[in-house]
Amino acid sequence: MENVLEVREMLEVERARKTQVSVELERVSLMEEISWRQNSGAPWLKEGDKCIKFFHWVDNSHRRNSAIDSLLADGVTISNQTEIRDYIVNYYENLLSKKFSW
User: Fold this and answer.
1) Are 55 and 46 in contact (CB under 8 A)?
2) What is the largest CA-CA distance in the chain?
């Protein structure tokens, strides 16, 4: 259609066809989106703009499941988050500062 416009004005039939094709394209696009929503089990897709809420929920869930609540170190249970962090940092600093001979 754009090539026709460069050469000459569109005929009335061509304008009507262009409008019809545009409307059909919009309808098909909407139908495809509805199909994706219906076939998806993901809440963020069904709820539209609430996807950020969904991803934060998933991220927080993973963070909760991978957190270290307590640590048994040298026979002592550590449950303070700062002490756990310091113990882990010191452990790896000592481990990485040792010289190994292969």
Assistant:
1) no
2) 88
| Polymer length in residues for the chain | 102
Q: What is the pLDDT of residues 13-48, one digit of tens each?
A: 888 888 898 899 999 888 888 777 676 655 555 555
Give this prediction's pTM: 0.38
Distance (Å, whole) CA 64 – CA 57: 11
The angle subtended at Cα 18 by Cα 13 and Cα 20, nearest 5°, is 95
Nearest to 1 by CA among 25, 26, 19, 18: 18
Residue pair 71/77 in contact by the 8 Å Cβ criterion: yes
End-to-end CA distance of the chain: 72
